[in-house]
Amino acid sequence: MIRRYLIENNHRSILVAIPQQGLGKKWEARERKILKMVKEGLTSDQVNNLIAETQKLQGLQLAPDSPEALATLPSLAIEDVPKEIEKYPLEIKKQGEILFHDLFTNNIAYTQIGFNTHTVPGEMIPYIPLLGTLVLGMGTRKHSYTEVSKLIGMHTGGIRTSHFTSATVQDRQQVLSYIFFNGKALMEKVDNLFDLFDELLGEYSFDDTKRLVEIIRSARADMEDSIVPHGNHYVQARLQ
Predict the structure, then answer these.
(1) Strand ranges across the sheet with 159-167
(2) Maximum separation of any 2 CA atoms in the chain, in Å
(3) Which pLDDT band, with edges at 50, 70 and 90, does 7 fall under?
(4) Separation of alpha carbons 193 and 186, rounded Å
(5) pTM score, two decimals?
(6) Is 23 within 8 Å of 31 (Cβ atoms)?
(7) CB 107 within 8 A of CB 114
(8) How far is CA 51 from CA 39, 44, 47, in A?
């Protein structure tokens, strides 16, 4: 893809930036020249007014805020923080399988389908997020991945995947692991959303090996790119 769309692409522009020694001083001299011309066009009274206004502004910027001004800032006291955890309404439609939260969402349905992955061997658990990415990005036996992407954009507000892993409180050696597929859509589009879920989870196809390699390489590149700016997250995850 890099060779086709970047290296051998005829529709491109090549820009070469060459450093120039002393360019910063040159810009500074030009700025001083412009300011000098502006100053020469002012009367002595105008110059004095500018100096006075500048000094007044600097004084305001450096002056500490008065207690009255500080009192206008919104703040919370410890007694303002509720002690109780907010509880959301929960209705069990089907024991252990379907949970419903009746909340105001502005006519948008937020759905989450979870699969228990406790049977996955421990050494394979780190690859579960990649599995979710492949399910959403490989296409199905009915539609190519580009067609699936168009259907998701046409009928939903997006479908994404997430992975949850945690040790249990009773046994730190026992691992809980779930993969989730999350989607949102307007209420009138809920049937389309679940049709897409049904197709993605029941008709997925990993036959396009070229696309498979692209997704794996992209996932690896994203992970490598995240190490430098978010390296502390990896350390924290290892310590937990």
Answers:
(1) 108-116, 175-186, 159-167
(2) 85
(3) confident
(4) 9
(5) 0.61
(6) no
(7) no
(8) 12, 11, 6
Task: Give pLDDT tens digits for 157-198.
Answer: 999 999 998 877 777 777 888 999 999 999 999 999 999 999
Number of residues written out for the chain: 240
Cα separation, 87 vs 66, in Å, equals 41
**Non-local CB neighbours of 10 within 8 Å, separated by 6+ positions:** none
Which domains, from first to last, does the chain contain? 91-224 (3.30.830.10)
What is the full DSSP assignment across the chain? Answer: -HIIIIIT-SS---------TTHHHHHHHHHHHHHHHHHHTS-HHHHHHHHHHHHHHHHHHHSPPPHHHHHTS----GGGS-SSPP----EEEETTTEEE-----SSEEEEEEEEE-TTS-GGGGGGHHHHHHHHHHS-BSSS-HHHHHHHHHHH-S-EEEEEEEEE-SS-TTSEEEEEEEEEEEEGGGHHHHHHHHHHHHHSB----HHHHHHHHHHHHHHHHHHHTTTHHHHHHHHH-
Structure tokens at 232: 């502390």
CB proximity list for 143: less than 8 A, separation 6 or greater:
151, 199
**Residue 142 CB contacts under 8 Å (≥ 6 apart), including other chains:** 199, 203
CA distance 193 to 197: 6
